[in-house]
Amino acid sequence: MEGVTDPLFREVMAERPGLGVVCTEFVRISRAPIRAVHLRAEVVKIPGVPLSVQIMGNDADCMADAAGIVSEAGADIVDINLGCPTRKASKNGVGAAMLKDPDLLYKVLSSMRARVPGCLSAKIRAGWDDATHILAIAQAIEAAGANFIVVHPRLRTDAFKGVADWRIVAALKSQISIPVIGNGDCWYAAPALHLQKAMQCDGIMIGRPALRNPWIFQQMAQIRSAETPVHPDGAMVAAFLHDLMGRFCAALHVPTAPIGRMKEIIGWVGRAIDDDRLFLRQALRAKSIQEIQVIIDTMIAPLPAHAIDMHSEGLLQLEKCPENSDKNTEFSAVSRHPCAVSSHVHKSHVTRTDF
Ligand SMILES: Cc1cc2nc3c(=O)[nH]c(=O)nc-3n(C[C@H](O)[C@H](O)[C@H](O)COP(=O)(O)O)c2cc1C
């Protein structure tokens, strides 16, 4: 995740139980000569946790060179970003903009395939402004030789509006042969596992929900092994934030940098505190690390677990989940009929329910 999953943050998350793979932020590959040193520097591995290195670009030769470099440098997975929705990416014809051109993405991925002996993947959205071409896109990715595909089932034009349409994940799973990983709005551990089962996908990628609840991977692992999932209380959340703050302060030498990084994470963790966003507002106004520390100690540390929306079942439901969205509820009624599912993947069914 851009601006978040740098090596330091990946290390913090990888130390926590339950995580299967960590992913870098995207690295933009332009037509300018590739700086191999810069690219190799992205491949910072954590012992025991596979690393996926994501690159973004649309020039087949440059992407092949970049893929070869990160693969040789030890990336366990080389991933192409076909989902970035930003205006800048779209203007440059990269990220989600490539979903408009399955021939181009086939060409780029095929050239990457030739240079990556290991695992190659593609991360896509449901489409540019409608989902009608999703199957053609996925088939192009499969034909180019990717080992798996990650689908965030929102359109580029949705940005982060509404709720991810996981029926699209199920439809792809039933129609292509390579593994399909679903991604989007898995805010709580138990519903995420239900969703994976209902959509029959091969895995789940979790982004923002892990920033909001850093215990989510552990909870999923505990549920899978029939243990009682941890439900963090205020003291645990405060300890996590203090640990992170200590690491940011030790590693980042620009004085304001740790404050910015902490506020980014607090922006997510604060969403899980059932206090009408009081903590969030106060912490985001803080001017120093010391001030943030005091706010955490007074407003978070004393909280009981039930005031924190990190229960594995999502008891407080402060976030909207795919399981509870109309379109995905509708899916569960048709999920026994794969043909009916695929017929649902068209624009009129990619409905929106804004937050
Ligand atoms: C701050 C931020 C940065 C992101 N950076 C990337 C990125 O570099 N590459 C990528 O494929 N997706 C990126 N995403 C999208 C997420 O990987 C993910 O697809 C999206 O947030 C939906 O999943 P979630 O609900 O689990 O967060 C980013 C999202 C956010 C909020």
Please tell me about this protein's structure.
The structure is a single chain. Strand 3 (51-56), helix 3 and strand 4 form a beta-alpha-beta unit. The longest helix has 18 residues, at 234-251. With 355 residues, the protein is an alpha/beta fold. The chain folds into 2 domains: 7-224 and 329-340, Aldolase class I (TIM Barrel), CATH 3.20.20; 234-307. Strands 1, 2, 3, 4, 5, 6, 7 and 8 form an 8-stranded parallel sheet that branches. The model is unreliable at 332-355 (pLDDT under 50). The two termini are 22 Å apart. The chain is built from 16 helices and 8 strands. The structure holds flavin mononucleotide. Flavin mononucleotide binds next to helix 9.
In brief, what are we looking at here?
With 355 residues, the chain is α/β, with parallel strands linked by helices. The protein has two domains: 7-224 and 329-340, TIM Barrel (Alpha-Beta Barrel); 234-307. The protein is built from 16 helices and eight strands.
List the helices and strands and how they pair.
Layout: H1 7-14, E1 22-23, E2 27-28, H2 36-40, E3 51-56, H3 60-72, E4 77-82, H4 87-91, H5 102-113, E5 119-127, H6 134-143, E6 148-155, H7 167-175, E7 180-183, H8 189-199, E8 203-205, H9 208-212, H10 216-224, H11 234-251, H12 257-269, H13 278-285, H14 289-300, H15 326-334, H16 338-343
Parallel strand pairs: 1-3, 2-3, 3-4, 4-5, 5-6, 6-7, 7-8
The chain binds flavin mononucleotide.
Write down the domain tally. Answer: 2
**CATH fold-level label of the largest domain:** TIM Barrel
Beta-strand segment tally? 8
Average pLDDT metric: 91
Helix content: 40-55%
Give the class-level CATH name of the largest domain.
Answer: Alpha Beta
- CATH homologous superfamily classification of the largest domain: Aldolase class I
Would you identify the regions where 5 or more consecutive residues have pLDDT less than 50? Answer: 332-355
Radius of gyration: 20 Å
- The CATH architecture of the largest domain is Alpha-Beta Barrel
Which range does the strand content fall in? 5-15%
Q: What is the 3D form?
A: globular
- The ordered H/E elements are HEEHEHEHHEHEHEHEHHHHHHHH
Number of helices: 16
Largest sheet: 8 strands, parallel
- Terminal residue distance: 22 Å
Return the structural class.
Answer: alpha/beta
